[in-house]
Amino acid sequence: MNSPLIDSHVHILDPKQFPYAPDVWYEPIGAEQGTATDLKQVMTYHDVQHALLVQPNSGYGYDNRAMLSTIANSNRRFKGMAVVKNNASRAELEDLKTQGIVGIAMNAALLGVDFYADIEPLLQHLRDLDMWAQMQVQHDQLVSLSPMLEASGAKLMFDHCGRPNPRAGVAQAGFQALLQLAGSGRAAVKLSGFNKCSVEPYPWADGKPFVAALIEAYTPKNLIWASDWPFLKAPARIDYGPLLTLFEQLVPDRAARHAIQWETPKRLFGF
Fold first, then answer.
1. pTM higher than 0.85, yes or no?
2. Which fold is adopted by the domain 5-269?
3. CA quadruple 63, 65, 71, 74: dihedral positive or negative?
4. What are 56-78's pLDDT values in tens digits?
């Protein structure tokens, strides 16, 4: 019997039940969509017991209703990362927390660093509420954001291995900034989105040095695994099973793999 898993980055995209918000930057179609029923079927097949839902900028933006509905009807199987405006109040965040939201997702890779220049009050609210500031950065964006994030005192979660430039190697400034945050004791990284750290096809071999460096710096106690299902805007087809097989190859030690795919996310998100 396989060990149970927690998938720490999936999206709900269900435009039939929850129509997309107006003026979103991208409207997922076809296989990019994934309902709560679709997700539960995938999880059952692969023995995934829990999942962290991440509000997608695609399709929904600030409209968290599809995700919140899925959490409310999950019998505590799901928790979530919401998207809110930068000036969200503490009361709004407290309300989201009561609905199973464990943090706020911010996407500098999509919206740019300047978009988040005014989030110090938001970060302070997250710190005081013991919620995560989940940031998706790419290349060297973290260099300018890191001082503010570190000074905030908030818990920090980074998506998709920090999305380093695959051509620049582990010495690039943004990735080094991510490795340095391991010493803060309140940062964690998702080992996910390997296609976003690569210019090669599956199994994205040029991304392996980044994974190895993160495992050394953060250790399995501060790393979590995620699929990024249902694989928005993927340049080539991605399937869930091969992702799990690849992770076994990247982390051959069974105890380390169990920590990253179960023990650590269970502890960090309170499943």
1. yes
2. TIM Barrel (3.20.20)
3. negative
4. 999 999 999 999 999 999 999 99
